[in-house]
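User: Could you check the structure of this?
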Amino acid sequence: MRIINLKDEFTSEKCYIALGYFDGMHLGHLKIIKTCISDAKRDKVLSSVLLLDFKNAKSITTIDDKIKILEELGIDTVYVIDFTDELKRTEPKAFVKDILLDKLKAIKTYSGEDYTFGLDKLGDTALLKDMIKESGGEAIVLNFELDEKMQKISSSNIKKLILSGEVMSANKELSRYYSIKSKVIHGKKYGSTVGIPTANLNINTGYIIPYQGVYVTKIKIKDQIYKSVTSVGKNLSFNEDFVSVETNIFDFKDDIYDDTVRLYFIYRIRDMLNFEDKDNLIKQIKSDIDFAKNFEDYL
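Assistant: Sure, the predicted structure tokens are below.
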């Protein structure tokens, strides 16, 4: 797989290209990308995806996450374009002609029904179809993927689900467990004071953080996955007023400070609570641990 930033010098070949914002790489996005890959293999053409790099924006999936998923899917080329003010001011017709047709040599495009592009998002699939057809190619527009309630699966809805703590519903629309990649940092070590040590994760990353609460989680450390339970939010029992993400890792005792890990959110158990009594706090944490250890995977 080739990864090419459009600001660099490169040579391109005729390709089929998937278009979209692709935040979350959810079931609808996967349908678009897999169709592009399948058609390209059938027609012996390169498959490609155009990714917008929003830099410091909070998202469901970072640009690196998207690239990793695309590699696993078997895409041939990933084109990355920085989401700059200049790009935002680009007229829709110029976006299609200058970037898709002239620079990337796209002969077939793949997108969802609601795909928009160019200045003020004035470009739509109707314009895309007309311009690609005029160039001798074809613009394929795929129908929305629907959830269990027959509603459109969308990045905005998945983001709302995560931010409200409904990670199980979000995960089903993603077709995988929502996860964040982060570095283990030094915390207040409150967990150790009650005999239940935790790994504190840096939350100043490019990811959105789920709603406050205690979650069934898994954590990936150096290619090994462990079951865990994670608290997200303010540690009310210790009068803290800042948000933290603290994970108790089952059957694990190694020092992982400064290591980069990936944390998977599986199910929200409960709200963060204020325990004035230490014994009640320990009792509740042990109950959370038992629940998490016995929770069955659903994906």
